[in-house]
Amino acid sequence: MARRPPLAPEVLRRQPRRATLVRMDRTARRDGGFTLLELLVAMTVLALVLGMAAGAIGFVGRGFERGGERIDRIEQVAVARDVLRRQAARALPLVEGVGAEARHLFEGEPDALSFVIAEPPAPGRGGLAAARFTVEAGEGGAVRLAYAQAPLEGGGERRSVLVDGPFELSFEYFGAHEPARAPEWRPAWRVAGRLPQLIRLRIRLEGKDLPAAVVRFRADAEPGCLAPPGPAAGFCRDRAGAQGAQAR
Fold first, then answer.
1. What is the pLDDT of residues 30-45, one digit of tens each?
2. Tens-digit pLDDT profile for residues 128-187
3. Which of 18, 49, 66, 219 is the most buried (most CB within 10 A)?
4. Are 203 and 210 contacting, i.e. CB atoms less than 8 angstroms apart?
5. Closest Cα to residue 111, out of 72, 169, 183, 155?
6. Beta bridge partners of 103
7. Domain ranges of the chain
8. pLDDT grade, residue 243 (50/70/90)?
């Protein structure tokens, strides 16, 4: 077998240069851009990151929205408590008629509360007025607490919605139905000759109890008659142990 002749010295000197050129060419191709696989991987990772970022932003936005709605509903409850306290402080324990026919101008039901108040003097207003709180069904399963007020002698009614949302509202009444019995909380008050000592508005928001509004009713106010001279049947303050009061 014939042996290969040795390479000439000039050939040996050219080979390292060729190898260097090949390595530089490969390096240039590698630094010139990305392969298709690398681009697909990068785009997939970017899509995942953007998706997670969008989800986080949406979650935070919904949290802020729910927080704002809850704050608004808490403010509604605060307004309702204030209106109930102010109107109860102006209440007058009036009765209609005298003797066995005497009946308090008061209604106490789980979903309704009404009584008579003394309206402060103002242009076009003043005198006695009927105040009424009612729990009503709203839109989409919501519950409303509405307040209405009208002159006792008749006239235009003013009405406003105090609370509107996913609430559970109910009135309760504290007192004794009979003198010999101990006072207790009741869901309704249907005693013609007596008034409750306390009124409570129970409030639940989205299944959680909120502090109830408890007001003292003027059941022990000073007795007296507010009816004008005329027939015995009129509007008079309750007089314990008496059949009524004569109008001055």
1. 555 668 777 788 888 8
2. 889 999 999 988 889 999 999 998 777 788 999 999 999 999 999 999 888 788 899 999
3. 219
4. yes
5. 169
6. 96
7. 73-237
8. very low
Take residue 91 and report the two structure tokens written for it. Answer: 């209440």
Distance of alpha carbon 118 from alpha carbon 106, whole angstroms: 14
* Residue among 80, 69, 60 at smallest CA distance from 201: 80
Burial pattern 212-239, b for ≥16 Cβ within 10 A else e, equals ebebebbbeeebebbbeeeeeebbbbbe
Give the predicted TM-score (pTM) of the model: 0.63
Here the tokens at position 192 are 């013609």
Using CB atoms within 10 A of its CB, is residue 18 exposed (0-12), middle (13-18) or buried (19+)? Answer: exposed
How far, CA to CA in Å, does 197 sit from each of 83, 140, 236, 240? 18, 36, 19, 15
